[in-house]
């Protein structure tokens, strides 16, 4: 009787152990599956994220080659307008012109100022934009060799940089892209980098050369003054027979009282 009870208890324990192991295995599998899904989706924009992209985002170019970069906006929310601010290296890239895209009909601002491109576009009344389209096309020229970027200015919550404005007014921009462009051969890149470095340090080198010349001239003046010795005033001797002007020569002793 006791033996059978013990055997029954052992069978219950074995079943409970198998069930516990099964639960652990299923839990581990679920965690691993969720981790894999999160890892796959990490860094990818969700359909609701509004974005500003550059196409192509990367390109190899030759010196003096002209090329185009499209500024593409994407949003599942209705947009009333867009502001885009793109910075670039004026030493490497020239902006030839800016063409309007099909995203908005009204583009009141297309300007270039000190290495920054400004684009502002507005939707017509009750014609808000939704979807993916080209906001503008940048016509560029490879001015000099080097690796350079087109950087879309964007900080979450900052309305002074690039924005995508929905209806009612609110900035919904969540993602931007950096354009990377490689211009010239390795030898051309090296030569161009050295040239830009020399141009950059030239004002400082000129200032140091001026200080060196001024210091040398001051040193030469000091040596000349030291070799000449101190200046001593030596009055001219006045001969006794030639008194200074305005005085008469004394020919002999004079009496105090004349007779």
Please give a structural write-up.
The protein is α+β, with helices and mostly antiparallel strands and 259 residues long. Among the domains are: 50-184, Immunoglobulin-like (Sandwich), CATH 2.60.40; 185-225. Helix content is 32%, strand content 35%. It has two helices and twelve strands; from the N terminus they run αββββββββββββα. Strands 1, 2, 3, 4, 5, 6, 7, 8, 9, 10, 11 and 12 form a twelve-stranded mixed sheet that branches. The radius of gyration is 44 Å and the shape is elongated. Residues 31-47 and 255-259 have low confidence and may be disordered.
Care to give the gist of this entry?
Among the domains are: 50-184, Immunoglobulin-like (Sandwich), CATH 2.60.40.680; 185-225. 32% of the residues lie in helices and 35% in strands. The chain contains two helices and twelve strands, in the order H-E-E-E-E-E-E-E-E-E-E-E-E-H.
Query: Helicity range of the residues?
Result: 25-40%
Query: CATH class of the domain at 50-184, please?
Result: Mainly Beta
Q: Give me the CATH architecture of the domain at 50-184, please.
A: Sandwich
CATH topology of the domain at 50-184: Immunoglobulin-like
Shape: elongated
- Output the number of helix runs: 2
Low-confidence stretches: 31-47, 255-259
Helix/strand order, N-terminal first: HEEEEEEEEEEEEH
Please provide the count of β strands. Answer: 12
């Amino acid at each position: 009787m006791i033996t059978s009870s013990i055997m029954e208890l052992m069978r219950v324990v074995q079943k409970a152990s198998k069930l516990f192991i099964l639960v652990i295995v299923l839990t581990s599998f679920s965690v691993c599956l969720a981790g894999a899904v999160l890892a796959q989706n990490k860094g990818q924009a969700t359909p609701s994220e509004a974005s500003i992209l550059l196409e192509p985002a990367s390109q190899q170019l030759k010196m003096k080659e002209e090329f185009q970069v499209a500024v593409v906006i994407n949003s599942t929310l209705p947009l009333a307008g867009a502001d885009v601010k793109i910075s670039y290296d004026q030493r490497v890239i020239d902006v030839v012109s800016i063409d309007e895209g099909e995203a908005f009909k009204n583009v009141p601002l297309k300007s270039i100022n000190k290495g920054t491109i400004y684009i502002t576009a507005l939707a017509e009344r009750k014609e808000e934009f939704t979807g993916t389209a080209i906001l503008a096309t940048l016509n560029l020229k490879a001015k000099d060799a080097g690796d350079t970027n087109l950087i879309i200015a964007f900080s979450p919550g900052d309305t002074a940089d690039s924005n995508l404005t929905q209806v009612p007014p609110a900035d919904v921009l969540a993602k931007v892209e950096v354009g990377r462009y490689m211009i010239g051969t390795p030898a051309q890149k090296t030569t161009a980098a050295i040239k830009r470095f020399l141009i950059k340090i030239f004002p400082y080198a000129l200032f140091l050369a001026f200080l060196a010349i001024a210091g040398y001239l001051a040193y030469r003046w000091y040596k000349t003054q030291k070799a000449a010795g101190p200046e001593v005033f030596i009055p001219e001797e006045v001969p006794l027979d030639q008194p200074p002007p305005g005085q008469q020569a004394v020919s002999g002793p004079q009496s105090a009282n004349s007779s």
